[in-house]
Amino acid sequence: MRDTLRRVVQGDLASLRVVLGLAVIWAIFQFENDRFLSAQNLTNLMLQITAIGLISVGIVYVLLLGEIDLSVGAVSGLAAAVMAVLNVKHGWSPYLAIAAAIAVGMAIGFLQGSLFSRFVIPSFVVTLAGLLAWQGALLQVLGSTGSINITDPKITGLANTFYSDAVGWVMAAAIVAIYGAVLFVSHRRRLAAGLEAESVATLGFRFGLVAVVTLVAVAILNSDRGVPLAVLILLAFVVGMEYVVRRTGFGRHVFAVGGNAEAARRAGISVNRIRIAVFGIAGTMAAIGGIMAASRLLAVNQNSGGNELLLLAIAGPVIAGTSLFGGRGSVWTALMGALVIGSISNGMDLLALSSAVKFMVTGGVLLLAVIVDALARQQRSASGRV
Amino acid sequence: MSDGAPLLELEGVSKRFGPVQALDRVDFAVHAGEVIGLVGDNGAGKSTLVKTIAGIHGADEGTIKFEGRPVSIAKPQDATALGIATVYQDLALCDNLDVVANLFLGREEVSTGAGQFSRQLDEAGMEHQTGELLSNLAVTIPSLRSEVGTLSGGQRQQVAVARSLLGEPKVVLLDEPTAALGVAQTAQVLDLIRRLRERQLGVVVISHNLVDVFAVADRIFVLRLGRPAGEFSAEQTTEEHVVSAITGVGQEGKKQ
Question: At a CB cut-off of 8 Å and minimum separation 6, what does A58 contact?
Answer without folding.
Answer: A69, A72, A109, A281, A282, A283, A284, A285, A286, A289
